[in-house]
Design goal:
The complex is a heterodimer of chains A (about 230) and B (about 300).
Chain A: E1 2-11, E2 14-24, E3 29-33, H1 40-48, E4 55-60, E5 63-64, H2 72-77, E6 80-83, H3 95-104, H4 110-124, H5 139-151, E7 157-161, H6 169-184, E8 188-192, H7 196-202, E9 204-210, E10 213-220, H8 224-230
Parallel strand pairs in A: 3-8, 3-9, 6-7, 7-8
Antiparallel strand pairs in A: 1-2, 1-4, 4-5, 9-10
Chain B: H1 2-17, H2 19-56, E1 59-64, H3 70-81, E2 86-92, H4 94-105, E3 123-128, H5 131-143, E4 147-152, H6 153-196, H7 198-207, H8 211-256, H9 263-290
Antiparallel strand pairs in B: 1-3, 1-4, 2-3
Helix pairs in contact in B: 1-8, 2-6, 2-8, 2-9, 6-8, 6-9, 8-9
The chains are: A alpha/beta (about 230), B alpha+beta (about 300).
Chain lengths: ~230, ~300
């Protein structure tokens, strides 16, 4: 569950988010769309607690995020999985090691790692690539590996920041199917994207952010016209 | 324990990866530790000399003018003996004074044979109960007739104390300066690895690894640099001090009449000091280098 209550975020003089309130239930699949610089990445950064809101409060999984102390942040982030547009796999580690690394960083035992890593690799469908290095994989496979890494510590919320941005439409479709599958396993998915066709095809709840405000929040399609009018 | 081994493995691997910079840092820190060690050696030895002097020289020597007569001397001795804290008074002739000096110069004593006329003054040697009385006795003796100069070891002790204090001060200032430079050196070396692995650090931050987990390997890298430098410096100091003792030990012994601090004690103590300094600057240096990178 993600709850924004009248959240405002200012960067120096610039207003990145302005009095935003939104409620996302457990197990929802949400698209965050809007033009560049509208406040989408600020929205994500606020959830990840990379930044704190200037005004308002954010509650995620029952925790008031803006009140977390620096000590509590690592523990809080373990409930979130994050996938970036550029995958961010470590080039000198194999796919298996990349994913195992995410578990080692949280002090998981070798036994847990040996059980969990093959499981997530099979969920994302790249079990056969475990011993390859990232550069040996296609873009889509790399993104699947990144999703596997995000899932390996079993987060309740998966945040995907333009995960299909670097992919061709067909590969992108594959990734979207995977994300939908993950969503069906009761993981909340919050996906930031520019891709209108993907949003339209998926028919999920779409939150449109423009100029720091939520201008539309409804199930269905990327309401392009409305965005343009407000811009 | 598992995480200690993990840090050790990662840390030494990182150290090996930028051998060049690590080695430079290690050598520079080693040489600075050696400087600190030299100061340490000087101070401890000076302290030892001071203690020896304090114990053995509870004497005040009153030099007499050359025109003093036998009767004058007897009279003087009687007066001095009555003073508080005076244990005994004895007369030292010019010849005895020269013999003592010759003995003190040891093998070089023959040089004094060429002096011709004995330039040394005759004196009264006053033994006092403790050094604390020496200043009072010396002042009294100085005012008596026929006396020229009064020497007592309170002065020597004071000089030694002053020298020891200033060496200690210099050592402390050097230490502070040196610690700052070393922290800078280590933080620069570790920063190379931190930057090379900034992506990894960022991912760990997003995954929810704690700052201490992320810092671990980098701290270990800095601490390893410090430990290696400390070991090298201990070796240098140990060998150097050993050689110094071989060459100059006897000479110093004859001049100041006190032995040098033994090598084993010196190595043990400087080793412990170097390790403590090395480990703390290593840890501190890596903390400094990481600060910026942990802000995600």
């Amino acid at each position: 569950m993600i709850d924004f209550n009248h959240v405002t975020k200012d960067y120096d003089e610039n207003n990145a988010l302005d009095d935003v309130s939104v409620h996302i239930d457990d197990g929802e699949f949400i698209f965050i769309v809007g033009p560049s610089g509208a406040g989408k990445s600020t929205f994500i950064k606020l959830i990840l607690r990379e930044v704190s809101p200037t005004k308002g409060s954010i509650v995620v999984n029952g925790k008031t995020v803006n009140e977390l102390s620096n000590r509590e942040i690592p523990e809080y982030r373990r409930g979130l999985g994050i996938v970036f547009q550029d995958c961010r796999l470590l080039p000198k580690k194999t796919i298996y090691e990349n994913i195992a690394f995410a578990m080692e960083a949280l002090h998981k035992t070798p036994k847990q790692i040996k059980r969990q890593v093959p499981l997530v690799l099979s969920i994302v469908g790249i079990s056969d690539k475990a011993d390859r290095y990232p550069e040996e994989l296609s873009g889509g496979e790399q993104q699947r590996a990144a999703i596997a890494r995000a899932l390996v510590n079993v987060p309740s919320i998966l945040i995907a920041d333009e995960p299909t941005g670097n992919l061709d439409p067909e590969t992108a479709n594959g990734i979207m199917k995977l994300l939908e599958e993950i969503n069906n396993r009761v993981t909340t998915v919050v996906m930031v994207t520019h891709a209108k066709d993907i949003v339209d095809k998926m028919n999920k709840r779409v939150i449109v952010i423009d100029d720091g405000r939520i201008v539309s929040d409804k199930k269905g399609k990327y309401d392009h016209v409305e965005v343009m009018q407000n811009a | 324990m598992r995480s200690f081994m993990y840090n050790l493995k990662q840390g030494s691997r990182q150290l090996w990866r930028n051998k060049g910079t690590s080695l430079t840092a290690i050598l520079l820190i080693t040489s600075m530790l050696v400087l600190v060690g030299v100061c340490f050696i000087i101070t401890t030895n000076l302290n030892l000399f001071t203690e020896v002097v304090k114990q053995d020289y509870n004497e005040v020597e009153v030099f007499l003018l050359d025109d003093v007569t036998y009767d004058d001397v007897v009279l003087l001795m009687q007066k001095v003996e009555k003073q508080d804290g005076v244990v005994s008074v004895s007369y030292r002739s010019k010849k005895v004074a020269l013999d003592i000096l010759k003995e003190r110069w040891g093998n070089n004593g023959y040089l004094l044979d060429t002096l011709g006329d004995n330039p040394l003054p005759q004196s009264l040697v006053v033994t006092v109960e403790s050094l604390d009385y020496s200043a009072g006795v010396a002042e009294y003796c100085g005012k008596l007739p026929h006396t020229d100069d009064v020497q007592y070891y309170q002065q020597t002790v004071e000089v030694l104390n002053t020298v020891t204090n200033s060496v200690q001060k210099v050592a402390l200032i050097m230490m502070a300066f040196f610690v700052l430079i070393s922290i800078f050196l280590i933080s620069n070396t570790v920063k190379l690895t931190v930057m090379a692995r900034s992506e990894e650090i960022q991912i760990m931050k997003y995954i929810g690894a704690t700052n201490w987990f992320i810092r671990g390997p980098f701290m270990m890298e800095g601490v390893l640099i410090g430990i290696i430098a400390a070991i090298l410096a201990t070796l240098f100091i140990g060998v150097g001090y050993y050689e110094f003792q071989l060459v100059y030990g006897k000479m110093i012994m004859s001049v100041v009449q006190s032995a040098l601090v033994p090598n084993s004690i010196m190595i043990l103590n400087s080793g412990i000091i170097f390790l403590a300094i090395g480990v703390s600057i290593g840890a501190w240096g890596s903390l400094v280098s990481m600060k910026r990178f942990l802000k995600v």
